From TrEMBL:
This is DUF4468 domain-containing protein. InterPro entries: DUF4468. It comes from the Bacteria. Residues 37-117 form the DUF4468 domain. Keywords: Signal.
Length: 180
């Protein structure tokens, strides 16, 4: 029993290591984030948790989810998240659109976030930076300064790392059975 727990801890440690290596390897050039983890749970349980994460994480999960296939264990969504960047004494709410792909299998799951696109400042037109892989923002440096674009590209990885930590926490949480 003790060896089994030690082996499980070792696997979790290796997954965390792979998780952080993937961030450092991809975050600055590809802006793709991947989390892979294993749990002693059925595919159905993991799928249910992934669906509930989508419902809790987005105001309208039905409009976010583009593909939902329980049989193969895949959910694909197009969501957005607000990144508040600080320039001087002001904070600016930047909208980042992204694709989230969740795959579940027996005893394991994977979450991929990619296609991250700066869609401008909330309630402002014209300040669109485009894909975070762009060297310069699509709108040019006149509307979105060089420093602001750099800050967005530097702060986005932290935001998505936190998002994936929330996803992992949700997936690792105990299922609650409500016998009301």
């Amino acid at each position: 029993m003790k060896n089994k727990n030690l082996e499980k801890m070792k696997n979790v440690y290796l997954l965390f290591l792979a998780f952080f290596i993937s961030f450092s390897a991809f975050s600055q050039e590809e802006f793709e984030y991947v989390l892979i983890d294993s749990l002693d749970q059925s595919k159905e349980e993991l799928y249910s948790k992934a669906r509930s994460f989508m419902a809790y994480s987005f105001k309208d999960s039905k409009s976010v989810i583009q593909m939902d296939d329980k049989e193969i264990g895949r959910i694909i969504g197009k969501g957005n998240i607000t990144l508040n960047t600080k320039t001087g004494i002001s904070k600016y709410p930047n909208i980042l659109n992204f694709t989230i792909t969740i795959d579940v299998r027996e005893n394991r799951y994977r979450c991929i976030i990619n296609e991250i696109y700066h869609d401008g400042l909330r309630n402002q037109n014209g300040f669109v930076g485009g894909l975070l892989t762009n060297e310069k923002p699509d709108c040019g440096y006149i509307l979105l300064t060089r420093n602001a674009w750099r800050d967005i590209k530097e702060d986005a990885p932290k935001l998505f790392e936190e998002f994936l930590k929330e996803f992992q926490s949700h997936m690792n949480s105990k299922s609650k059975v409500d016998d009301f």
